[in-house]
Write a structure and sequence with these properties.
single chain; alpha/beta; 3-stranded mixed sheet; about 20% helix; globular
Length: about 230
């Protein structure tokens, strides 16, 4: 989707399904038609450059208010500004919120965010008092977005472009991995990891990790997040 629509796209509920709504101009719509041999079913709306912003709605998770730079934060909450750019993640997806729910229950320590997207989890961890925090992603756009968002939130987040499956992961006491299930199945937590928080899959899935025991599960809208402890 990002290759076809670098301007961005969003998820929109449609009954039991989820539609991916792309934001583009007439030239982009023509490219899509040429790629798939079809004609766009909906006309291109004027002002598409701003239209995607209506999908970026602030959310509250525990003590955190997470929203875009143009929104007004709620008083009394810790503020996290997130502008996703071309990376995935605004804080509104259930898997992100579930990870943040679990993070609220943990004692602060060092954190590794695997597959950081736009940096929501890493920045939220720093805002909650965790540290140091390292965020990694194989996508250059994600690294750029995370770096930009960390600067906007005035937090020191170590951001690196790296493939979590091609080498050993950097050490951290807590590892956050909100990524797809096939990647999780191949993930090897670093030696120093004592707590592992995973998400990115539906509640009928149950990932397992050698040397880790399952502690807790949080569920929202058929998505799940799990907490594992070593030993």
């Amino acid at each position: 989707m990002l290759e076809l629509f670098p301007e961005g796209f969003a998820e929109e509920p449609s009954g039991q399904d989820v539609e991916l709504v792309a934001f583009t101009d007439e030239a982009g719509a023509r490219r899509l038609g040429e790629s798939f041999g079809m004609v766009a079913s909906k006309p291109v709306a004027a002002g598409w450059e701003e239209e995607w912003k209506r999908f970026h709605i602030p959310v509250v998770v525990g003590s955190l208010w997470i929203g875009p730079p143009w929104a007004k934060p709620e008083p009394g909450l810790k503020r996290v500004w997130i502008d996703p750019g071309q990376a995935f993640g605004t804080g509104s997806h259930p898997t992100t919120q579930l990870c943040l729910e679990i993070l609220h229950l943990l004692e602060p320590g060092s954190v590794l965010d695997v597959g950081c997207g736009s940096g929501v989890l890493g920045i939220a961890a720093l805002t909650l008092g965790f540290g140091p925090v390292l965020a990694i992603d194989s996508d250059e756009a994600a690294v750029e977005a995370t770096t930009r968002n960390a600067t906007a939130n005035s937090v020191h987040l170590d951001v690196r472009q790296a493939d979590a499956l091609t080498g050993p992961l950097p050490d951290a006491a807590i590892v956050l991995a909100n990524i797809d299930l096939p990647t999780l199945a191949r993930l090897t937590p670093p030696h120093a990891c004592r707590l592992l928080v995973t998400s990115g899959y539906y509640e009928d899935a149950q990932p397992e990790f050698s040397g880790f025991g399952h502690v807790a599960r949080h569920v929202q809208a058929n998505w799940a997040a799990d907490l594992f402890t070593r030993g």
